[in-house]
Design goal:
about 450 residues, alpha+beta, Uridine Diphospho-n-acetylenolpyruvylglucosamine Reductase, domain 2, Cytochrome p450, three-stranded antiparallel β-sheet, about 50% helix, binds protoporphyrin IX containing FE
Length: about 450
């Protein structure tokens, strides 16, 4: 079908045309989440719009989302605007596709996800973190938990303490903030502009890259060249260097460095905890029931991965929190060929958007969608169609850290809940779309004793 047959055949129920790319781009940038809400309310299964000179289509129907994300024949998609991230990462999984993507996923990432090192660090550091908080003293949870989760990642990767290196924490923060603008129109160009933010981010990249290069060299001189491959339990960077140096390996130092840096861009747990603690503070009955589960299963002892099966309510809370406030609000692919979804063809060169934010809040699939109700996840509860819930995406580019993320999520949330309850200490946090779903002006909360 020719490209001009692209748009969904039915007329928009709202009667609103979205074909002035400049106006639509301004609307989108002023608040991507309300823009997505409006696209969903349009009511069509594939909603056309334009961002600047780029025609785009938001897929809203679960059946089509499944076709868009994965089917027996891999949809004709490329990573599209994600390639802008090469300014920060240079190489790596986010920037690869096809067999090379699968190789990096299976060789560089998967072995680390299964190493218990990181979950042990997560529990130990979270107990200390919760103990360091003072009753009633407000904390901006989003940034506090982001530094906390990154310190867990950093310790697993290097065996050292990120709290002792505030300049590195700042460099990581600048890099992850840049990911959000690098994927926008003019993002890669902006990297080189003489703007203070661009300049600071370029300097942060130089600094971080040279620190990682030094750490790689230190490991290489320490472990020598036995060519035998990774040793589980060692810090992740040492495992990656051993992998790169193993006999027959085609992994480059640039890929090791990208994997290291990408860990911090991928980890969205801080967003999950911020919104979950906020939702619990607004739903005292859920919170009370949750505390009862923690008390009966754990008491004061440290939680372990084996406890997960005894913490079903904690898991339901996490699922429901990711439904209402999905940490990743949306992602785009670029079509490499015309692709049919029902009676719509998305033409080659157009963007295809998928949004957990839009779909998780769609009343066609989730009645009373803004209500936080962990019971939706109970056994026997009515389930909406597959792919009406996809916080971790699906298909070839789905979150490979999903299993690890769920383990860490249960362990860290349970540890935070064992020690304190959390109450608002400022205005209601408003979600905004950056690299994650971030509270626009932070989320000021205070730890209080549990009742
Ligand atoms: C609540 C926490 C998390 C959420 C909601 C989440 C969600 C996602 C989503 C939606 C994607 C896919 C985006 C797309 O399809 O384009 C993704 C990709 C990815 N995630 Fe996660 N993630 C989380 C935590 C983590 C953690 C802790 C790791 C471990 C480092 C991780 C590693 C990855 C990796 C490596 C990819 C890239 C997949 C690829 O491009 O091939 N994620 N994540």
């Amino acid at each position: 079908m020719p490209a001009d047959a692209a748009a969904s055949k039915s007329a928009p129920p709202s009667g609103r045309s979205r074909d002035n790319g400049v106006i639509e781009l301004v609307r989108f940038l002023s608040n991507p989440l309300t823009y997505l809400d409006a696209l969903r309310e349009d009511g069509r299964d594939v909603v056309p719009f334009k961002l600047g000179n780029l025609p785009a289509h938001l897929v809203t129907k679960p059946e089509y989302l499944k076709l868009a994300m994965f089917n027996e024949d891999w949809p004709p998609i490329s990573r599209g605007r994600l390639m802008g991230l090469s300014k920060w990462y240079t190489e790596g999984l986010f920037l690869s596709y096809g067999p090379e993507h699968h190789r990096q996923r299976d060789d560089l990432w998967k072995p680390l996800f299964n190493d218990p090192l990181i979950t042990d660090i997560a529990v130990e550091r979270t107990r200390k973190k919760a103990d360091s908080w003072v009753e009633g003293r407000p904390i901006e949870l989003y940034k506090e938990l982001r530094s906390h989760c990154w310190a867990i990642d950093w310790q697993a990767l290097t065996g050292t303490d990120l709290d002792a290196a505030p300049d590195i924490l700042e460099a990581l923060g600048l890099g992850v903030e840049a990911l959000a603008w690098l994927v926008l129109p003019f993002g890669p160009a902006r990297w080189n502009w003489p703007l203070p933010q661009s300049k600071k981010t370029r300097e942060a990249k130089r600094k971080l890259d040279s620190v990682i290069a030094l750490m790689i060299a230190e490991r290489r001189s320490r472990i020598g060249a036995d060519g035998s491959g990774p040793v589980p339990g060692e810090d992740f960077l040492t495992q990656l260097v051993r992998l790169a140096d193993a006999d027959g390996s085609i992994t480059s130092d640039e890929q090791v460095r990208a994997t290291f840096k990408m860990w911090f861009g991928a980890d969205q747990l801080h967003a999950l905890f911020t919104w979950t603690l906020w939702l619990l503070s607004q739903n005292p009955e859920v919170e009370t029931r949750w505390h009862a589960e923690l008390d009966s299963v754990l008491g004061d002892r440290p939680v372990t991965v084996d406890d997960m099966r005894s913490l079903p309510y904690t898991i339901k809370i996490l699922h429901e929190s990711m439904r209402v406030y999905p940490p990743v609000w949306g992602f785009f692919r670029m079509m490499t060929e015309d692709y049919r979804l029902g009676d719509t063809v998305i033409p080659k060169g157009h963007l295809m958007g998928m949004s957990p934010w839009a779909t998780h809040r769609d009343p066609r699939y989730w009645p009373d969608p803004e209500r936080f109700d962990p019971e939706r996840w109970s056994e026997g509860a009515e389930r909406p169609p597959e792919l009406s819930y996809f916080p971790f995406s699906a298909g070839p580019y789905e979150c490979h850290g999903r299993g690890l993320a769920m383990k860490e999520a249960v362990l860290i949330l349970a540890t935070l809940g064992q020690r304190w309850a959390y109450r608002p200490a400022g205005p209601e946090p408003k979600p905004s779309a950056t690299w994650a779903t971030e509270p626009k002006k932070g989320a000021l909360m205070k730890p209080v004793p549990r009742v």
